Amino acid sequence: MSAGSGLPRLEGRDKVTGAARYAYEYPIEDCLYVWPVGATVASGTVTEVDATAALADPEVVAVVDHTNAPRLRPAVTADELVLQSPTVAYRGQVVAAVVATTLEAAREGAEQLLVRYVEHPHKAVLDPDDPDLEQPETTNAGFPGTSVKGDVDAALAAADVAVDHIYTTPPEHNNPMETVAIIARWDGERLLVHDSNQGPWAAATGYGMLWGIPADQVDVVTEHVGGGFGSKVWPTAGAVVATVAARVTGRPCKLMLTRQQMYTMAPARTATRSRIRLGARRDGTLTAIDHDALQYSSVIHEFVEQTGSATRTMYASDNLRIRHRLARLNLPTPRVMRAPGKTPGMFALESAMDELAYALGMDPLALRLRNEPPTEPATGLPFGGRHLVDCLRAGADKFGWASRDPTPAVRRRGRWLFGTGLASAVYPVYQQGGTATARASPDGTFDVSVAAVDIGTGARTALWQAVADALGVPPSRVSVHIGRSAFGQSSLAGGSAGTASWGGAVRKACFELGRRLAEHGGAVPVDGLEVTADTAADQLPPDHARHSYGAHFCAVRVDADTGQVRVDRLLGVFAHGHALNARTTHSQLLGGMVMGLSIALCEQTIVDPRLGLFVNHDLAQYHIATNADIRGLEAHSLEHTDDDVTLVGGKGIGELGIVGSAAAVANAVFHATGVRVRDLPITVERVR
Ligand code: MOS
After folding, report:
1. What is the ipTM of this complex?
2. Alpha-carbon distances, residue 659 vs 497, 584, 605 (angstroms)
3. pTM over 0.90
């Protein structure tokens, strides 16, 4: 990590004092409140929306349903096509919205709506024997649904040692502190929104597609965002309702989803079931890797979590097979959440590697070092930097792995059993082209505009620092403007691509501005000087396999009587190249590790199959790791600069820390107790 100067967050003070303004907080005059109404059946047809009682309240301005909503056009998933048809594909799908002059009246009106349905049979169980399973052509992020190298079955049959187990992860929900929020206004054919999202340009594009207008007719303002983690990547069903209400009423409309509404009106992660088969020679050389992933999508849209994608790139094997199968359930379309695919897939693969190490009587670190591939196993591409071995070795040193006795269930003090485990981490390098504008003023100050968004990562601060570095001026002379679609095409805060993508555009604009200023002999013209740069043509060719890597080392204690798991220590070492800001990078890595720990021990959305219902749809019952769950947490960044990666020389960091950490915890639990937990989360009844 070369950025010694970890400047503190620009907006830190505003956020903790309440001065930072979030989407819902803009004082827009004459604004109406929108309360979306979700279906109370899991599958069926709306036969009537009786609004008589609701409309009797003079504060209720309108009730919108499929009979009177304006037409929308297909955009990203069918879930956002709200109020377009009477068909109900899942419980909680938006079937109506009440618009009123006060929030209370909108909510009360929603209570008074009488929505009648014809109910149809539904399916809400992820069942490997489901006769209707599909074999998708591709997964999210464009990986092939099935890829085969060599003869996996023959290699498994001939292997000296083989393991064959099934690992599952439950549906999981993003719970950003700030739920989905929007204020929408129409000005003729222009849509103006204050919106909580993971990319104002993507939001403008998404709303534009839905309404059949160009993205530059949608003005999105997103100054501060209280978290996203994947739930705000594209316009959500919930937010689109407000744009519909504004169209119908001709007035500004505001909406903020309740925590419970977030569970069906914003996207979440599918459940996954991975069967992993590994075959090896006695010396630990892998001869076969088979990853068969089952997951679900909704009945209205195909979304295929890339659960097997990490298995494509991790370990050498002449025989490698990755398959994805898809069930169609009456649940909301799942979408990206915190390292999509990598999080559940690496829980499975890294647990299986631990099981193979025990089957071989081999150290799990040595097993991974033995199977380091010369090129990417699934594609044969050379790596654009790897450093997995460096991360594993450095982590083992810092953690004190060498002194470990591999025997499970033998370290006991009082009621506590102690154990340690490790797992690898990986996350692909994504980078998107986009524009940024840099301005020099005669007073010696500089302004840079880019349609970036800071969802809590510290992106604004990292860009501020990148601008100052690129211009060679003190940060105090630089202002960075983000959070507006009007600043031009730009990356999402998604796929851990944001800061590198925006940083690349910003640097290009600053370098060009510097050149232009030099042409003027360093003097700034009276009316200033402005340069807009576009990095669309500067993207790296797909001639290398580029990923960030890491290694997690975990120490747990498990209560032998109750099965309670406490993570005493979680140590990660990461190879992500250059960091724009050391402080916010460190926080991102720690945050990722906490999310992994949380997925390991707490997080699960429980589906009641009889009702097609997410049962635990709030923070009282959807458990997330809190401060009391976190003890020794350490993230280290590996020094290295030799990679051919992004325009800023750094790889993604946002999601890297999440990947593999759940397996490190599960592997430590096995070492402590001798109990192999293959189903997340690792709750007490699964340990005992
Ligand atoms: Mo992240 S799941 O790419 O927002």
Report:
1. 0.97
2. 16, 19, 19
3. yes
